[in-house]
From TrEMBL:
Database matches in SUPFAM superfamilies: Nucleic acid-binding proteins
Annotated organism of origin: Psylliodes chrysocephalus
InterPro entries: NA-bd_OB-fold (IPR012340), Ribosomal_uS17 (IPR000266), Ribosomal_uS17m_metazoa (IPR039193)
UniProt entry keywords in alphabetical sequence: Ribonucleoprotein, Ribosomal protein
GO molecular function: structural constituent of ribosome
GO biological process, one term: mitochondrial translation
GO cellular component, one term: mitochondrial small ribosomal subunit
Protein name as it appears in the record: Mitochondrial ribosomal protein S17
């Protein structure tokens, strides 16, 4: 009898993953980043695995980082986990230790203090006045729309096609 090798993501009880576009009804697709050891170089390299999670309410959108939890038994052949909690909505990163908002590699309050010390630009982005995610739905944000697989190129630019 041969041993069947299972992906590492199916053995873990809880995972953090990034939501990617999915065409399944009542489920979301997640990209899980794992580090794999290359024994020749003795270095770890990133490897991505795909996991489907039960999400009937569609609480997560494409790009969100989410905690997913393993189900006691599989719902289908693919759906092995369920969405537990949205950690970071796309574009809104929070440092888990301090609880402060982060922009690229700096805290937002540090950026504001520096701009106050040197004089604030009129064109500077104001995070506290920015609208929440979702205000551009059906304009530039199509993460709430059901996606489908595009099998041929017909010249149209449909943002809901995968």
């Amino acid at each position: 009898m041969t041993n069947m090798v299972l992906p590492a993501a199916t053995k873990v009880h809880m995972l953090i993953g990034q939501c990617v576009p999915c065409i399944k009804q009542g489920a979301s697709k997640f990209k899980i980043k794992r580090l794999e050891l290359d024994s020749n170089l003795n270095m770890f390299f990133p490897k991505h695995e795909v996991v489907y999670a039960h999400d009937p309410e569609k609480i997560c959108k494409t790009g969100d980082y989410v905690i997913i939890e393993k189900l006691p038994e599989k719902l289908t052949r693919l759906i092995t986990h369920k969405v537990k909690e949205v950690l970071y909505p796309l574009g809104d990163v929070t440092d888990p230790i301090t609880g402060k908002k982060v922009v690229v590699g700096s805290f937002r309050d540090h950026i504001e203090n520096v701009s106050k010390a040197y004089g604030e630009k009129k064109t500077a982005f104001k995070y506290e006045k920015a609208p929440k995610r979702g205000w551009q739905e059906n304009k530039k944000d199509f993460t709430h729309v059901e996606t489908y697989i595009k099998y041929h190129e017909d010249g149209s630019n449909d943002p809901t096609a995968v």
